[in-house]
Amino acid sequence: MIKPPPGSSGVDLLDVRSIRFVETAAPWLSCEEQAALDRVWEDAVQANPNLFDGPVAACAGLEREDPHGLVITWARTTYRHYALRRVNGTARRLPALFVSALQPTEDGRLMVGRMSPATAAPGRWQLPGGSLEPPVGDGPLDLAALRGHAARELVEETGVDTPAEDLTLWRVTLGAGGNVGALFTAPSRPVSLLHDRFQALVVSEKALGREPELDRFALVRSPADLARLAGPHVDYLEPVVRLYTAATPPG
Q1: All domains of the chain, ordered by start, with CATH?
Q2: In angstroms, rounded to a whole number, what is the distance separating the alpha carbons of residues 115 and 117?
């Protein structure tokens, strides 16, 4: 099992060209563990009624297959499973699998968003993205499925519609808690287009009586720009911004 190296962020950014997925069964929970999980989940929903116990693909293992390949073992479960992190005395929690999109501007900055109060992490800054969902029916969980999911998250959270085939796998993140994320880069866009698409999305969501997943976005070129964004930041954000912008000169 790959583990992140020791360090201040506790996050490793893996240079990956291929990912192979192997499905396994979700861990068995005792009656006591399931009851404790249900209590924690019910409390969370009472505090935030927008939480949805939808299907997710969770990470059950991560191994190197070759210098630039990974094997990810995954299990079908639902979002409430992640509430096990708040249950004392159980080691059966599976880390999360997620996808995120790096949306650059033509001048070399990256788009980051702040999670709205209607989400599971209000006020947190992160890249557009979300928990990975298992394939429907007999569809495979593979790199193409991840790319498609990242494209959907990008348009749902920012209004920027990008064909899945235009997204490129950039890195895989491994957090201190074992959470694994596949990061894809999108083609650069003009700043004005990003503003217009985001504002149109916010207006559309509110007209439908819904809160957008992101209530604000910012454009950053460095960790110093991130430091000026008040509120919590997802663990991978600073290492990603540091690495990406160091390799991408301003346009």
Answers
A1: 12-246 (3.90.79.10)
A2: 7
